[in-house]
Specification:
Length: about 190
């Protein structure tokens, strides 16, 4: 398993990605997505629509600068308390939306981003079929202490079909999947072998 592959990029508060910026393409609702995964997103959404579901692509790519602005505005609101602000808006470089590989998907008639979204037919279909299109539910309810992010039944992340199927079958989150593999950092022995 090559964890350095672009679609397995792990981003969280302990794995910041700095000013990482993928090549983007504009998808529906004026959102942008990594050009390498945009076909998969289009197929995922088309699959749901074929079931008669009212898909709303609420948010996809958000750049470093936008996250930086949102974060520091929140810090200011909380009198300079970065720790409190970071529980509401992730610091720049630590939001998965900067990868261009995740999408917030809600129901057009139920756009509320809270746990109750899980009761919609839309979520139930997306959750059951996401892996067939290479996506995972990134922040499950039972993994909040590992991901560090609250349950988000709208946030789907592209990881490729093979990894998505494995993660779903094993009931993992991305942090747990990555931890299954030893570091892929080059070792001194690799260097010696040329
Ligand atoms: Zn999201």
């Amino acid at each position: 398993m090559d964890l350095s592959s672009w679609e397995l990029l792990l981003v969280n508060q302990t794995h910041p990605i700095g000013q990482y910026a993928p090549e983007l393409v504009t998808v529906e609702n004026n959102q942008q997505f990594d050009v390498r995964a945009s076909d998969a997103l289009a197929e995922f959404i088309a699959g749901a629509r074929a079931e008669g579901l009212s898909v709303f692509l609420s948010s996809a790519y958000r750049g470093y600068d936008e996250q930086n602005y949102l974060y520091w505005r929140k810090v200011e609101q909380y009198g300079g308390d970065e720790a409190v602000a970071a529980t509401i808006v992730l610091p720049p470089g630590t939001s998965e939306h900067q990868t261009g590989l995740c999408a917030d998907i809600t129901d057009m008639y139920y756009p509320t981003k809270d746990a109750s979204l899980e009761n919609t037919a839309l979520f139930q279909w997306m959750n059951a079929h996401c892996a067939e299109y290479g996506f995972i539910l990134r922040y499950p309810a039972d993994k909040q202490d590992i991901t560090g992010v609250m349950y988000e039944p709208w946030h789907f992340r592209y990881v490729g079909k093979e990894v998505a199927a494995f993660i779903q079958e094993q009931g993992l989150c991305l942090e747990e999947f990555v931890a299954l593999y030893p570091s892929t950092e080059p070792t001194a022995a690799d260097d010696a072998a040329g």
